[in-house]
Amino acid sequence: MAKTKITKKEALDKFQAAREKKRKCLAQLEKSMKETYKERTGKEAEKFFAL
Fold first, then answer.
1. What's the distance, CA 41 to chain centroid?
2. Which residues form a coiled coil (predicted)?
3. Minimal CA–CA distance to 26: which of 38, 15, 18?
4. CA gap 51, 42 in Å, rounded
5. What is the pLDDT of residue 1?
6. Number of C-beta neighbours around residue 41 at 10 A
7. What does the pLDDT read at residue 25?
């Protein structure tokens, strides 16, 4: 099993893709959690926090 070294550009592209995917997932999570909160309480959620 040989490990191949990736270039700086490949590593940066991979990091940027992961960052973008995380941003999209968090936006979707925020939307669904705010909708659930509104249905449950009848109030608008003011804040959203996720790591």
1. 25
2. 12-46
3. 18
4. 26
5. 59
6. 9
7. 96
Tell me the one-letter amino acid at 9.
K
Summarize pLDDT for 1-51 with one digit per residue, the tens: 578 899 999 999 999 999 999 999 999 999 999 999 999 999 999 999 887
Nearest to 51 by CA among 25, 15, 31: 25
DSSP state of 2: -
19, two tokens:
């960052």
Q: What are phi and psi of 2, to 5 degrees?
A: -95, 130
Cα 33 from chain centroid (whole Å): 14
Q: How far is it, in rounded angstroms, from Cα 47 to Cα 50?
A: 10
Half-sphere exposure of 25 (CA within 13 A, CB side): 8
